[in-house]
Write a structure and sequence with these properties.
Elements (H helix, E strand, L loop, with lengths): L7 H4 L20 E16 L4 E17 L3 E5 L6 H8 L7 E6 L2 E2 L5 H7 L3 E4 L13 H12 L4 H14 L16 H13 L5 E5 L7 H18 L2 E5 L3 H7 L2 E6 L2 E7 H6 L4 H9 L49 E4 L2 E3 L5
Parallel strand pairs: 3-8, 3-9, 6-7, 7-8
Antiparallel strand pairs: 1-2, 1-4, 4-5, 9-10, 10-12, 11-12
């Protein structure tokens, strides 16, 4: 069980690092479930009377990371930074433009259709809007049973028993199986989405803003549920969020995205105690502190995030960076390891 379960009601989903999930990280010698190598997703932009291609939206522009079994990698950044597109590209809900996604040693990006169907058993998604992601015409039982029927992983006579077990696993009663999505509360609907994602016993779950639409107290319940399920099944999570408090609560490591690129990647404690990239520092300075006596120097960034259609030359953050140098405007920084387990893409380091 989660070590923070007793204090969510007061601390909310943003419980501090001392009690957060995965404080010690996944077990030693854990294997890599997911390897993402220089992943890119560029959307074409068409214009003119003939609708010719006029450019590209560089939504995801070369990101790389790994996730081990039993580990949660938090992916954070402003709206428009490419987080959700990265998650969908990893699962091939949209086809990436370039790069490689390796799931348990097998290349997802080049898998033919018949093999991709088999790989989808190992990777599932929990969507941001629990209501929009559920078919309103189907009962809760049918929704959770659907992947079991599609893949034929259990005999037909055993499907109902499996669904009952999944409902109990996510904290829903067996009596609620006959209900339809509109009859559940927001937190219950998200639990239903989690049950559906768990039906095929995947190795990887991509959770895209799974608690952003929920009340704070319900957020804590869903987060604790995900943490307990991870501990029980040794699941790997890619947890996408813009809420730093939630990411601090659930993640082992955190990757910070800006305009389609990862600018900093390290474990949770280092990121929240010693952020190195100016963008990360600005994000953390904007997060509220649940202590009225604490004071934090606010870093105000000028302007909005640039358009991914025409990203700035050099470092993409130089147009807003308070510590910009001349080389930042012309030379793009590369990701470097500046300390053990701490990677950052910045000319200052």
């Amino acid at each position: 069980m989660s070590p923070v379960r007793g204090r969510e009601a007061s601390a909310g989903a943003g419980a501090g690092a001392a009690g957060a999930a995965g404080a010690n990280g996944p077990g030693g010698g854990a294997r890599s479930v997911l390897e993402v190598r220089d992943l890119k997703k560029h959307f074409p932009v068409h214009g003119g009377l003939l609708r010719r291609r006029a450019g590209s939206v560089f939504a995801v522009d070369g990101i790389s990371f790994e996730i081990q079994a039993g580990e949660t990698l938090g992916l954070v950044g402003e709206s428009g930074s490419g987080k959700s597109t990265a998650g969908k590209s990893i699962l091939r809900l949209i086809d990436p433009t370039a790069g490689q996604v390796v799931l348990n040693g097998e290349d997802v990006t080049r898998a033919p259709a018949h093999r991709l169907r088999a790989l989808r058993r190992q990777m599932q998604m929990v969507f941001q809007d629990p209501y929009a992601s559920l078919n309103p015409r189907l009962s809760a039982e049918t929704i959770v049973a659907e992947p079991l029927r599609n893949y034929g992983v259990v005999a037909k006579r055993e499907i109902r028993d499996r669904v009952v077990a999944l409902f109990e696993r996510v904290g829903l009663t067996g009596e609620s199986m006959v209900k339809y999505p509109h009859e559940f509360s927001g937190g219950q609907r998200q639990r239903l989405g989690v049950a559906r994602a768990l039906a095929l016993e995947p190795a990887l779950i991509v959770a895209d803003e799974p608690v952003s639409a929920l009340d704070v107290s319900v957020q804590a319940q869903v987060l604790n549920l995900l943490m307990d399920l991870q501990q029980d099944a040794n699941l790997a999570f890619l947890f996408i969020s813009h809420d730093l408090a939630v990411v601090e609560h659930i993640s082992h490591r955190v990757a910070v995205m800006y305009l389609g690129k990862i600018v900093e990647l390290t474990d949770r404690r280092k990121l929240f105690e010693e952020p190195l990239h100016p963008y990360t520092q600005a994000l953390l300075s904007a997060a509220p502190v649940p202590d009225p006596r604490s004071r934090r120097r606010r870093i105000i960034l000028k302007g909005d995030i640039p358009s991914p259609i025409n990203p700035p030359s050099g470092c993409a953050f130089h147009t807003r960076c308070p510590m910009v140098e001349p080389r930042c405007r012309t030379e793009a920084p590369v990701m470097r390891t500046v300390a053990a387990g701490h990677d950052v893409a910045c000319h200052l380091h």
